Amino acid sequence: MALKFALIGCGAIGTALLELVKNDAGLAAAAIVVPAGSEAAAQDVAGRLAPDAQVLQAVPAESIDLVVEAAGHAAIEQHVLPALKRGIPAIVASVGALSAPGLPEQLEAAAREGGTQVQLIAGAIGAIDALAAARVGGLETVRYTGRKPPRAWKGTPAEEGRDLDTLAAEAVIFEGSARDAARLFPKNANVAATVSLAGLGLDRTTVRLIADPAVTENVHQVEAEGAFGRFELTMRNQPLAANPKTSALTVYSAVRALRSRVAPLVI
Ligand SMILES: NC(=O)C1=CN([C@@H]2O[C@H](COP(=O)(O)OP(=O)(O)OC[C@H]3O[C@@H](n4cnc5c(N)ncnc54)[C@H](O)[C@@H]3O)[C@@H](O)[C@H]2O)C=CC1
Ligand SMILES: O=C([O-])CC(=O)C(=O)O
Q: Which PANTHER family match (predicted)?
């Protein structure tokens, strides 16, 4: 029996995910959950990539084994919390939502109530395993720098006081805590939240966000130091054509998490 999943959100990540798993025998997209007004576009995607999926505005009450969130911060409270309370496990991409005070505790309580688990995916960043392991021995500093081409920062506070279309040199658009980065840049700083939740926490992880006309990739850098030693990581991610804010690796990370639910051997 294939694992029946409900996909929450059907944008750049959701569509690419459905494309990648459409021939997986162990997985069945049973529902696609989108807000009112987005059903027609989702129906079109379902027609091409998930013909058995119902397009809905909420996770169905029956017959769902797992929810996969790829929608945005608001979807955690709206769809993930209720699913967990009903005992449905969840895979979450919008990790930055956990920067809202109280939400991590609410997620834990909902999962406990439902006797299930919520998995925050690594998404566009690597070395989350190393960072979370290093935390066991004690971490001293964790620094994260996110660098993207100017167009990836459109529609964010990065536009205040600067014209991203004519940016000639790199501009630091944010310096501060991972909590503030995730709150102010909900579509661009999920990685900041992920790095901090695996490491030193949302308030002690220092974050720099940079708009850089000299790069074409989404560049993520982590420097961590602690009892384990130190590491420096640089990721140069290809953005998705459908959304320059989002790296293709985020899709692959979600697909990996999904496939791991049914694979007999997992790495
Ligand atoms: N962990 C990571 O490394 C990353 C996480 N993300 C997260 O993934 C989210 C989705 O990314 P993309 O697919 O590139 O965005 P997108 O804008 O292309 O697609 C978002 C989709 O979600 C739907 N949606 C929006 N609000 C919703 C709600 N409350 N309930 C259900 N559906 C809703 C939209 O209609 C659309 O179909 C981002 O907003 C971000 O929070 C994105 C990139 C990296
Ligand atoms: O996909 C990426 O490169 C990272 C991203 O948008 C985020 O951290 O929210």
A: ASPARTATE DEHYDROGENASE DOMAIN-CONTAINING PROTEIN (PTHR31873:SF6), L-ASPARTATE DEHYDROGENASE-RELATED (PTHR31873)
| CB contact at 8 A, 32 and 93 | no
73 is known as an active-site residue: no
Q: What ipTM goes with this model?
A: 0.99
Report the CATH architecture of 128-242: 2-Layer Sandwich (3.30)
Q: Is the CB of 75 under 6 A from ligand 1?
A: yes
pLDDT in tens, 28-82: 999 999 999 999 999 999 999 999 999 999 999 899 999 999 999 999 999 999 9
Q: Shortest CA distance to 98 belongs to which of 1, 16, 196, 30? A: 196
Which ligand 2 atom is the nearest neighbour of the CA of 218? 3
pTM score above 0.90: yes
Report CA 1 to chain centroid distance, whole Å.
Answer: 28
Domain 3-123+249-260 matches domain 128-242 at the CATH topology level: no
DSSP string, 69-106: E-S-THHIIIIIHHHHHTT--EEES-GGGGGSTTHHHH
Dist. CA 52 → ligand 2 center (Å): 30
